[in-house]
Structure formats: structure tokens, C-alpha cells
Design goal:
With about 110 residues, the protein is of the alpha+beta class. It has a single domain, classed as Alpha-Beta Plaits. It is built from four helices and four strands, in the order αβαββαβα. A four-stranded antiparallel sheet has the order 2-3-1-4. β2 and β3 form a beta hairpin. The longest helix has 15 residues.
């Protein structure tokens, strides 16, 4: 670090068509998404509408509704969001995704003497 020198130069690396690269990246992201089904009590409809304003709510029974989301299968942020709802929502499918949530919740609880 003794021979450090600051020069007034600009890097001119060509990255190609950035707009196309961004669109390609977005498409790759959406290709990892899977549809999940979430059930919730109608009492919590306001909360669901707040978090998922673009999702259509379907009434299942007089007391229960559901929505369908497309989420990246392996992204932990979505799993954390869904788990943060606690018992206010229930992911009913697909089974593999539901089991991953259960496994994550059990691991979390194993940190405590429950």
C-alpha cells in the first residue's frame, strides 16, 4: 500500500445491452417461481390485502378465504414472510413447499425448550 497512486482515469468496460440483461435476469427469476395456496380467516382479509394487494381473494367457506401466489421456490425471504404471519395463514400447497415451511418452523422452535 506504500506505492498507492490516484489517477484520474475512467473505466470504460462494455457491459452490452443492460436493458436486455436486466430483462433476462428477471425472466430467470420468474422461472424459479412456484404457485402456492394460502388460506386465512376472513377476519384477516385486511391484512392479506395489505401484504398482497394484487392477489385475487377467493372465498372458500363463510369463515375462510384463499389466495394464490407465485413465489421463488428457494428464496428464504418469502418463507420468512409467510412464517411471520404465525397462525393467521396456512399454506396448503404445494406439499413440498408446505413441508419446507414446517421444517423451518420446527428448527426455529428447537432453539427453545418447547
Amino acid at each position: 500500500m506504500e506505492n498507492l497512486r490516484i489517477e484520474n482515469t475512467v473505466s470504460e468496460v462494455e457491459h452490452g445491452d443492460l436493458e436486455k440483461r436486466m430483462k433476462d435476469s428477471e425472466q430467470a427469476y420468474y422461472q424459479t417461481c412456484i404457485p402456492i395456496e394460502i388460506h386465512f380467516d376472513n377476519e384477516n382479509g385486511g391484512m392479506i390485502a395489505e401484504y398482497f394487494p394484487d392477489c385475487r381473494v377467493e372465498r372458500v367457506t363463510e369463515k375462510e378465504s384463499r389466495i394464490f401466489l407465485e413465489v421463488p421456490a428457494k428464496e428464504r425471504l418469502w418463507k420468512a414472510l409467510l412464517l411471520s404471519f404465525g397462525d393467521q395463514v396456512k399454506v396448503t400447497g404445494p406439499e413440498e413447499y408446505k413441508q419446507e415451511l414446517i421444517k423451518t418452523a420446527k428448527k426455529f422452535l428447537s432453539n427453545y425448550d418447547i
